[in-house]
Design a protein that fits this description.
This protein is an alpha+beta fold. The chain contains 8 helices and 23 strands.
């Protein structure tokens, strides 16, 4: 990827001008410097494709008179861009400047004078003091993805030194007076179009930007901008929507993102802040899709467990079940009755859910007979981590409180069932939650982007990812 890959992240067209972001991204000077280093290699290769056209003409050269000359088959043998700078113009855009660049060419020369004298040979030309400056505009195409272009490009060629192989010293006079100017003009015409091409070649890569990233078969997350990027002297700060949606159904949740501050850290190339809003929007989406409801059957309990989902086990605590439904297997329906609430604070991620658990006896003909319904409040802690370009996690049970909502078998004490349901949650429900959770949610990315030396902190109201970046293709 080119240095311009970083510019993709500043190129979204704002969706709205007032909505607070769910995700923030900060590109530091360290990140811009890394991108620039990669980009210089690409730009150097592009400039090596300069095609210098043949030059010919007629000039009077003392003392021999009129001379007809031609320079042909000129090829660039070497090109260097030793000094470059990518600077941020606060509130406006990005500027690229290259100075002290050099080009070495090799070609053939031929002259004819006095109507019959001919001479020819080869030459080497060293051009030094080449400078290139350009501004980079970033806009959006019809799909909401970025498009970059070079504007206000300028190129100047400094000193030139030529060495002729063969011929007389008067050839140098011919060069210094006439050919030097023609060569410089020919080079300057070639440079800016090639710079523009190098920048425009990024656009196919920018189409890989995951403005709308699929999470799984149920959900996707949107990373469009909710306001214009803020460009300062030291960083580019982006405000992304960071909201989960059901695939094909973009329904807004009954809550809005709250502002959160990004810390002034600059040690890493990139910082990503993921707010409580983003995670809660995921809970809203999955609950709406019914993904937070689960039937639990006995085959989901490890064979080694002394707890079985049958009327014998539950009859030990609720005798009327064993009397009315002897020898039957049971099934539990765990159903979330409202969206889970997630809080982020001080390296702790806590998920609070309010659910119902309905117990059924499975009749010999496979029909389900309801036995009772419990109200259950569950608190779990989540450990968040990064896996490749995804944010993943794992949950562990904190507390569980139950009370009887409805009984179809008469009154009974709920507290003796607490241990049974804790075991069922730990061995049947939480492993399945974690199996999905470990698949993770895609982070905003371009092409083959890889996170390096990453750290994740849980702060009040958001998670902060500090990372360096590598582009592998």
């Amino acid at each position: 990827m080119h240095l311009w890959c970083w510019l993709a992240l500043v190129a979204f067209i704002p969706v709205t001008s007032s909505t607070s972001p769910g995700v923030k991204v900060k590109i530091t000077e360290k990140g811009l410097e890394y991108g620039k280093q990669i980009g210089m290699v690409t730009l150097q290769q592009k400039l090596k494709a300069i095609k210098v056209p043949d030059i010919s003409g007629t000039q009077k050269v003392a003392p021999i008179g009129k001379v007809r000359y031609s320079l042909s088959k000129m090829q660039i043998m070497n090109l260097g861009l030793p000094k470059s700078a990518l600077t941020l113009a606060p509130g406006t855009g990005v500027s690229l400047s290259i100075s002290n660049a050099f080009i070495n060419l090799h070609g053939n020369w031929k002259v004819k004078y006095m109507n019959f004298i001919k001479d020819s040979g080869s030459f080497d030309l060293s051009v030094n003091g080449l400078t290139i400056t350009t501004s980079i505009s970033v806009k959006s195409d019809e799909t909401g993805r970025p498009v970059v272009n070079s504007v206000n490009c300028g190129a100047t060629v400094g000193s030139a030194k030529i060495k002729f192989h063969g011929g007389a010293s008067w050839l140098y006079n011919l060069f210094s007076k006439f050919i030097d100017q023609a060569l410089r003009k020919a080079l300057q015409k070639q440079i800016c179009p090639l710079v523009a091409d190098a920048i425009s070649e990024l656009n196919p890569h920018l189409k890989t930007l995951n403005v709308l990233a699929k999470v799984d078969k149920l959900a996707e997350i949107e990373y469009s901008m909710v306001s214009s990027p803020v460009i300062s002297k030291s960083s580019i700060d982006l405000s992304l929507k960071g909201e989960f949606y059901n695939i094909g159904q973009h329904q807004e949740p009954p809550f809005s993102p709250k502002p959160f501050p990004m810390p002034p850290q600059v040690n890493n190339m990139l910082y990503i802040g993921v707010s409580t809003f983003t995670i809660n929007s995921a809970a809203f989406v999955y609950n709406k899709a019914g993904a937070l409801s689960l039937f639990i059957t006995d085959d989901m309990i490890p064979p080694s467990s002394p707890i079985r989902l049958n009327t014998r086990t539950f009859g030990a605590f609720i005798p009327q079940i064993a009397k009315r439904f002897p020898g039957l297997m049971m099934k539990l329906l765990v159903k979330t009755v409202k969206d889970p609430g997630i809080t982020l604070e001080g390296n702790n991620v806590t998920v609070q859910t309010t659910s119902t658990v309905t117990a059924y006896a499975i009749q010999p003909n496979s029909t389900l007979t309801p036995l009772f319904i419990l109200n259950v409040d569950i608190s779990v802690s989540a450990r968040m981590y990064l896996t490749e370009m995804r944010l993943a996690g794992a949950v562990a049970l904190n507390t569980m409180d139950m009370n009887l909502r409805t009984s179809y078998v008469g009154d009974f004490q709920v507290r003796p069932l607490q241990n049974i349901f804790q075991i069922v949650l730990k061995v049947a429900v939480i492993p399945r939650v974690n199996a999905q959770f470990q698949k993770g949610c895609p982070l905003p990315a371009i092409g083959k982007m890889k996170l390096v030396n990453s750290q994740l902190q849980v702060l009040k109201g958001y998670m902060l990812i500090g990372t360096d970046v590598q582009f592998t293709g």
